[in-house]
Amino acid sequence: YSIWGRSVLRLFKGISVKCFQPHNPLYRVSVALPTIDYRHNRWGSESGQHSGTPYGFHLTALGLLTGLIASRSFDEEEPHSVGQRNGFPKIVQCAEAPRVVLHKERQAAIRSLEVVADVAQEAQPAVVSITSMDKGFLARHTQSTGSGFIIDDAGHVITNAHVVGYRTNVFVHLSDGRSFPGRVLAVDMSSDLALIRLDVKEKIAKALPQLALAPDLKLVRPGHFVLALGSPLMLANSVTVGVVSALDRDLGHSEGLKYIQTDAIITFGNSGGPLVNLMGEVIGVNSMIAGTGVGFAIPVDQVRNFVQMALQAAARTGKSGPIGSRRDAGDPHILTESGTTPSGAPARRYLGLVMRTLTPELAFELGSRGGPQYMNVTEGVLIHSIMRNSPAHRAGLMAGDVIIAIDGLPITNAQQVYAAAENREELSLTILRQGQRIEFPNIRTEKT
């Protein structure tokens, strides 16, 4: 610190104290202050060389007082003097602060966390974003839809059914900037899965990055770290990390499907992206969210079954995509020409909804996240998402609606909606939207 021109201290030009550790407030400073012959502007001895002057005694006393004040300490640490030169004040050095030293065990633990970044780096090239190709009045326009990932060297891509809807063609964008057209090979409404084949030459397809499906879920436990990859909100190559919150989560699906619950952040645009373990294997397909930190993925066992069924259906048709019985031949469909599934089972009817049973707990959580319309709802079925061009989409239903009745009869779970859609050609729904009760009469179901 330098003392300059305040009250009587302006006489002491050049008196200074230096500390080599100014960031440490706990130190003690001792300094010897010489007297000054103000009239001759030179330093005197500590006893006062010009004691006869009117300033000598007072300046000596002031010097002693200043030295006493400067010697006050908040710490018992003694300073180390580095010398005094030419009668100037001493420069003192404070003790060094201790350095933080990490133990080898902690260093190893920190390095082990790099596996998350390594897995993300290896998996990202095989993760794609998908945009649709919709036909406008005069020209074709695109619309961002979701994510997916390449699973083999034939250029097959897995995504959600609600990502592609009933579109025939899509564009698939890789993380390296390349884009390829894709043909929607098959769509399974019940499991919300779709299979796309890239329209590329065999040589290019074999060189594409791909992700391996985990053998099964037997080794997956709650608490295991997972990565959710995709393109949320059109932000390509995004990675979020979390843990498996629960397995075999029942969301009231008519087919008894179970889901993987995770707290890895999943949002709009993540749909269809992979949920990856620390081995870099896909254990699920990100499908839906119930709120921040509550996401659901379709288990890899269901994904593998769907892929096998879709490829069998494609092989039987002998074309790039299977043929639907009630649609144009080019429409994506998992049905064979006879109107049955590849296993021979009769086709089912559907509405095109992805739903969750609305429990009081879920209603409270949705209400606390900015949806006050859910606070007073005690039971019903929440529409999570709707497949484009499906019966529900054409009828005007929207994500966020709550179905409270079918044909005038109250419902309490999603199973009732699935059962009604499968067994009836036409039904009427009563829904709540923004607190308003709305009727949707005579919605026709379709076969899948």
Automatic annotation (TrEMBL):
Residues 361-435 form the PDZ domain. InterPro entries: PDZ, PDZ_6, PDZ_sf, Peptidase_S1_PA, Peptidase_S1C. Residues 318-343 are annotated as: Disordered. One of its GO terms (biological process) is proteolysis. Pfam families: PDZ_6, Trypsin_2. SMART domains: PDZ (SM00228). Keywords: Hydrolase, Protease. SUPFAM superfamilies: PDZ domain-like, Trypsin-like serine proteases. Belongs to the peptidase S1C family. PANTHER family: SERINE PROTEASE FAMILY S1C HTRA-RELATED (PTHR22939), SERINE PROTEASE HTRA2, MITOCHONDRIAL (PTHR22939:SF129). This is Trypsin. The lineage of its organism: Eukaryota, Metazoa, Spiralia, Lophotrochozoa, Platyhelminthes.
